[in-house]
Amino acid sequence: MKKITFLLALLFAPVLSTAQEDKDFLLDYFEETRDNLKDQIRRLTPEQMSFKASEEDWSIAQCVEHIIMTEKSLFEMMKKLMEQPANPERKDEVVSTAQELIEGITNRSHKFKAPENLQPSGKYTNPEEAFAEFEAQREQIVDYLKNTEEEALRNHITDTPMGVTDAYYSFLFLAGHTARHTLQIKEVKGSPGFPD
Description:
single chain, mainly alpha, Four Helix Bundle (Hemerythrin (Met), subunit A), 2 strands
């Protein structure tokens, strides 16, 4: 649980109204975040992938690696949650909305330090190779969701450092984390000195 405490700390935005929250909404968000990442990294050169705006900032290669590492870690956690007995009697304790979660995690004005086990090394220099690894992993997650009843996602509730959530929102958070770091990649590309 300590591995993702920094991520869960992002769940703080005010409650907002949202669109229909169902499995289609969740799957659409997974597709959207996948496509946005692909659009941001395709055709980048090795120099562009490794560029850092400052010594402290991550490169695009590091952002992508962190996304891949984190999705793997969170997916394993979500599968373990789903293996636990359902506890729908706690549904009323879940007060988040999809809009709240997405806006909270994609708010780049708040920065957090990733735990050591999710710190990237910059192993990717080729965007196609990086995206292929991301996509292979993403397909496993999406297949899992397609084969899991929405009711089961809603009936598995867990405690987090920032409150009570269900598996549906936990998976939405996973996709939102990718959206957050895709925005970071866009920031890197807009930095002064980014290679042409």
